[in-house]
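Problem: given the chain below (199 residues), write out its structure.
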Amino acid sequence: MQPGGRGGVAFIDTPAGEAALRHYRRGGLVAKLFGDRYLWTGRDRSRSVREFRLLAELQRRGLPVSPPLASRYVRHGLRYTADLITLKIPAATTLAECLASGDFDAALASRVGELVARFHRQGAWHADLNAHNILVNEAGLYLIDFDRGRLRTPAEGWRRANLARLHRSLLKLGAGKLASFEDKLWPVLVDHYEQAYAA
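Solution.
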């Protein structure tokens, strides 16, 4: 198992290649009551089906996501459990790992800003934009784990809130200890975000 959303991710072999299997789990206090079970309100509103469809649409639009392979839900009376399988991004590290290893520099910050802007221009709202959900490899950057994400009309309010969530995530992971973070790295990220969003 490896971090990647609540409950972690297991990597499995599939005919399409190595893939990430994620079992949906609740977080916080609700997890103690319901664990991995969600209230059934119909197939089209199940977590796995909604995320699968969103990822398929984002991929169709040319955005760098983990290609969806399969989704599943299992009814348990009035509740259900769910799983999602996506193709694994090869040889990737998370932005959180880059920060921990000292590889989060101005060049990477600029690329992160541009990545987020690409999604926001398409109206793609990520419910949990944090440093663990941004992957980096030689080919580029990717955004993963779109559980509860959705497409919305681009607006200043939610875009700024999304960036603020990423900022809090980086601070929580120790970015604030870097002397250059608030004075250079974060401003570079935001500046490249603005430029890419306006392009």
